[in-house]
Specification:
The chain is of the alpha+beta class. It has two domains: 111 residues, D-amino Acid Aminotransferase, Chain A, domain 1, CATH 3.30.470.30; 36 residues, no CATH class. It has four helices and ten strands.
Length: 151
């Protein structure tokens, strides 16, 4: 589903877009009326968007507990695939003061989940020669489902 949504969103026409749902992850207001991330989420709801699930945490132990909950069971029961969580400082003025480093906001941190893994069987190995004469082994494997894709 995640790979399909990515492909559909990049189409020049709207074919298959009726099968996608938009989940709003952020809002960039034109004014300074909003002072917190919580207010941005409330405004998204008011405008009729479905924002991603959010939690207001007062300390890092609560952040760790939420991460562990997602990792242990909540991630697999979600209606869509997620690869991690984003922790943001609620105070937008403080986020702005912290600024950016390498185009990434310093007031936000992404915590990725470990990648999904599984096992399969190698059915055969073919040797392919590239345009520059490089010989590369290419394995044909028994098809498996991993992260919503058949490999």
């Amino acid at each position: 589903p995640r790979n399909a949504a990515s492909g559909i969103s990049q189409r020049l026409d709207s074919k298959y877009s009726q099968y996608c749902t938009l989940f709003a992850v952020d809002l960039f207001p034109n004014n300074n009326d909003l002072t917190t991330e919580s207010q941005k989420i409330d405004l998204l709801k008011k405008y009729g968007f479905t924002p991603v699930e959010s939690f207001l945490c007062s300390d890092l132990s609560k952040v760790e507990k939420i991460y562990q909950d997602f990792l242990s069971h909540k991630r697999n029961s979600y209606p869509y695939e997620i690869d991690g969580l984003v922790v943001k400082i609620n105070d937008l003025n403080l986020q702005n003061k912290l600024g950016f480093k390498n185009l990434r906001p310093k007031g936000q941190v992404a915590y990725k989940f470990p990648p999904d893994t599984t096992q399969t069987r190698v059915l055969e190995v073919n040797w392919e020669t590239g345009p520059m004469g490089t010989i590369t082994p290419v394995a044909k494997v028994e098809p498996i489902s991993l992260s919503g894709a058949i490999i």
